[in-house]
Specification:
494 residues, binds ligand MTE, five-stranded mixed sheet, 11 helices, binds molybdenum atom, alpha+beta, five-stranded antiparallel sheet, 19 strands, OxRdtase_Mopterin-bd_dom, Immunoglobulin-like
Length: 494
């Protein structure tokens, strides 16, 4: 109880003071960074995009267990429980200090709350009435209960005052989300052709609405970036270091483009993929101003939260719509999708290109620097692999015999989809009908009208790219550079 109270107090203090991550958040993020990638994979598998909720619940459960231990210990031996609380506090403080958005100033809420918690614990569990003379003697030597509670109150009070002061002096980060004055695009995105969306129930719509867009990142709580102080720094192997404020960015001629984004952790048939129109400044224009030096072959983009991605320089300087994006589907970026500015690069998995809350572009070489996930066993380069998915019918369910609508999406960003085939029960591949798409950077819907006969059947899909490459049926896992294999759905007809 008391330990729990201390954690809540520390979190409130951190939040209120705006000193950075609170203890739960810091422990969670340190945990995420230290987690081996197989465990992360398992977490994403088990909990999907709820993996962070699961981690948060896990940490709270572990803390509650430790709190009980602390209470029992304190009851058994005076001060031993307080020591447990102090140990936990120091651990949390260490995690807080080690976070890129934490540091030493972020640790004081944890330390203050730990001190208060330990004092309250000792005070509450102090023997109420000494039962014998010897005990009385010993207890006189220890602090008495009232003093301890007063002390805890004092520490808490001082911490609260400190929090108010530090908030008023603006020591923290601002809350995310004030609307941005997005300009009209100088280069507008084409309207999707009427045939882009087949309007089939259960099929992913051509445009993924922002609230439904998948979210993958290592941030336990969404970083809060103040648009007024946001600045992009372009440095490293460049002739000129370039700095760009948000006002400057919004004053540029912006491009709006459709790009389908997908995650390397997407399993065959998975849903870590979405399509949106993005508004932003082509990255090549910023890089042209900085003038990369000969020999540079990579841009290491860095987020305010310490995440980094390695993107080939050539991909950011060719003609494609690699954007420093400020808009998503006609509004500013939602906080969890990178507000106020993120990268979006057609043709590459998100972990090597789509840095959210981006703050830096460091021009460097693959030989000299590695990115967040590369250090954890993933590939430094990761172009998207051609994929296709069956959305309807869903597996299992009873279908009526007769014509069954089989439909889904297929993607091969920056290459384009040329054909999609479907086969039933390992039979002949039959061409599906392709929906339209704005260009080769987005997914395409497809539909196959299947004359279904009663019985158990399997449906499989495979795509072919405009480069002639046929999606391989060979199964590969997501590590290190993306899954392969055909999506298969088993159904029961009649
Ligand atoms: N700062 C930051 N940016 C990040 C990540 C991250 O963990 N931190 N994850 C990347 C990964 S793995 C993917 S797939 C995309 C997902 O973008 P979304 O959450 O907007 O769909 O963001 C990328 N950008
Ligand atoms: Mo990802």
């Amino acid at each position: 109880m008391v330990t729990g109270g201390a954690v809540v107090l520390a979190d409130l203090l951190a939040r209120f003071a705006g000193t950075g991550p609170g203890p739960v958040e810091a422990v969670a993020e340190a945990f995420i960074d230290l987690t081996p990638s197989w465990l992360k994979e398992l977490a994403i598998d088990l909990f999907g995009t709820n993996d962070k909720v699961a981690l948060g619940v896990g940490i709270v459960v572990v803390m509650a267990a430790l709190a009980v231990v602390a209470g029992l210990e304190e009851r058994r031996r005076r001060y031993s429980g307080a020591m447990v609380v102090a140990f936990l506090g120091l651990l949390a403080a260490g995690a807080t200090a080690s976070r890129p958005d934490g540091g030493l100033v972020a640790t004081w809420p944890v330390l203050a709350a730990t001190a208060a918690g330990a004092m309250v614990l000792v005070a509450l569990l102090a023997p109420a009435r000494p039962v014998d003379a010897e005990r009385a003697m010993r207890d006189r030597r220890t602090l008495d209960r009232r003093r301890l509670l007063q002390g805890a109150g004092l520490v808490t009070g001082a911490a609260l005052v400190g929090a108010v002061v530090s908030r008023m002096t603006g020591a923290g980060t601002a809350a995310a989300g004030p609307p941005l004055a997005l300009p009209d695009p100088a280069v507008p995105a084409p309207a999707p052709p009427p045939g882009a969306d087949l309007g089939i129930e259960g099929l992913a719509p051509y445009r993924t609405p922002n609230p439904e867009f998948y979210r993958i990142d290592t941030a336990f709580f969404v970083p809060r970036v103040d648009p007024a102080t946001w600045e992009l720094r372009v440095h490293g192997m460049v002739e000129h270091e370039v700095r760009l404020t948000l006002d400057e960015l919004l004053g540029e001629k912006l491009t709006e483009a459709w790009v389908t984004l997908c995650c390397v952790s997407n399993e065959v048939g998975g849903h870590l993929v979405g399509n949106a129109s993005w508004l932003g400044l082509p990255v090549r224009e910023v890089l042209a101003r900085a003038r990369p030096l000969p020999g540079a072959d990579m841009v290491l983009s860095r987020s305010v939260d310490g995440f980094t991605a390695s993107t080939p320089l050539e991909v950011l300087t060719d003609e494609r719509n690699a954007l420093l994006a400020v808009g998503m589907n006609g509004t500013e970026l939602p906080p969890e999708h990178g507000y106020p500015v993120r990268l979006v690069v057609p043709g590459l998995y998100g972990f090597v290109s789509a840095t959210k809350w981006v703050a830096e572009l460091e021009v460097t070489r693959f030989a000299d620097a590695t990115a967040y996930w590369t250090d954890r066993g993933w590939s430094p380069r990761a172009p998207v692999k051609i994929s296709s998915r069956i959305d309807v019918p869903r597996g299992g369910g009873d279908l009526a015999a007769g014509e069954v609508v089989v439909a889904g999406v297929a993607w091969a960003q920056h290459t384009g989809i040329a054909a999609v085939d479907v086969r039933v029960d390992d039979g002949e591949w039959r061409p599906a009908e392709l929906a339209d798409a704005v260009d080769v950077d987005t997914w395409r819907q497809w539909v196959y009208r299947w004359p279904a006969e009663p019985g158990k059947h399997s449906l499989e899909v495979r795509a072919t790219g405009l480069d002639g490459v046929v999606q391989t049926g060979e199964r590969a896992g997501v590590v290190p550079d993306g899954a392969t294999g055909w999506h298969r759905v088993d159904v029961q007809v009649g």
